[in-house]
Amino acid sequence: MKKFSIGIDLGGTKILIALVNRETGEVVHHVKKKTKKDKGPKNIIRKMVEGIEELIEESSISLENIQSIGVGAAGQVDRENGILIGAPNLDCYDLNIREHLSSHFNLPIYLGNDVEIAAMGEMKFGAAKGYDDFVCVFVGTGVGSSIVKNGKIIHGATGTAGEIGHMIVDLNGRQCACGAHGCLEAYASRSAIEKRIEGALRKGRHSVILDYLEGGKSISSSMIQKSIEREDELVIQCVNEASEYLSGGLASIINFINPKLVILGGGLVEAVDYFYKNTIKKARAKSLPVPATKIEFKKAALGDYSGVIGAAFLE
Length: 315
Ligand SMILES: [Zn+2]
Hints:
By secondary structure, the chain is an alpha/beta fold. The chain has helices at 41-59, 97-102, 114-125, 185-188, 190-202, 221-229, 233-257, 267-271, 273-286, 289-294, 306-311; strands spanning 4-10, 14-21, 27-34, 66-73, 76-78, 83-87, 92-96, 109-113, 134-139, 143-149, 152-153, 261-265, 296-299. The longest helix has 25 residues, at 233-257.
């Protein structure tokens, strides 16, 4: 086993490429690139190749010491063949990542999705270290999750297991980006909270969040946090609503899978502690009595690095 692997977190706005020490999980060096999805899939491949070359050069570690390259992409993946099947946030469809990277680097290339690599990172070196039965839920633009059973990620028959964001929580509910109605993601994501706040502002409700929105900025997790600190009624109301739905989704997962631990992560959870605390309290209250007494909750511990660390261990 060689000492290092390269982990790549391929997201809608940035590509994070890191050299990871396989024994300690330490990110030895990293390179960041802008995704610029409007320039097409070829550009994304070029950015990854350039990034890997820069990483190797700047860290002065030779290819002989590198075990593998793992890529986690925000989309649906064919792990066996290394193909990114569909990634709306990257505007990539049927992109053979393994083939493209293999033509530049003589190393094993592996592909996974973004939530799975984050869960792997947390399992190896983060909040789930020592656990082999847990669920990771990440709240950001969407709501994603990954299920780990006996130390292995559950992929399901078509590789799409863990899509908690499309759990239907209201049969006649809001339209979701996936085409269905009433999906959890349409209620509990940061974007859902944004839409609720914006809708209320348009109707003339007042909120201190307006102080941060000058110059056409869009609502961020840190603006939500600052508004809560100032006890803003509208923002608290919208966050409570999202928390109510997310806790229902979590209770369903807890009852259905009976994990030992639930990890919550993502921008909204990291920035807004009120949201995290409220959600786990409600999730416990909504779960069946026996799992409710045993379930543990933790916040994700690796932040932005969880994906690259996990990607380094794809195989
Ligand atoms: Zn949906």
